[in-house]
Amino acid sequence: MYGLLWWSKIARDIAIYDAIISAMCMTGISYLIFSSLQYYIPNNRNYWKLFGLAAIFAVISVTITRFLIVQFINDDNLIYLNFSLPFRFVINFLIITCVMTINVFWNIQEELFSNKKRKEESEKMVREAELYNLRQQLQPHFLFNSLNSIIALIGSKPTEARNMTFQLSDFLRGTMRKDDTQFTSVEEEVAHLSLYLDIEKVRFGHRLSTEFDYDEEVLGAKIPVMILQPLVENAIKFGLYNVTEEVIIKISLNLENQLLTIRISNPFEADQYEQKKGTGFGLSSIQRRLYLLYGRTDLLQTETDGNIFISTLRIPQL
Question: Among residues 175, 194, 316, 286, which one has the least CA distance to residue 249?
Answer without folding.
Answer: 194
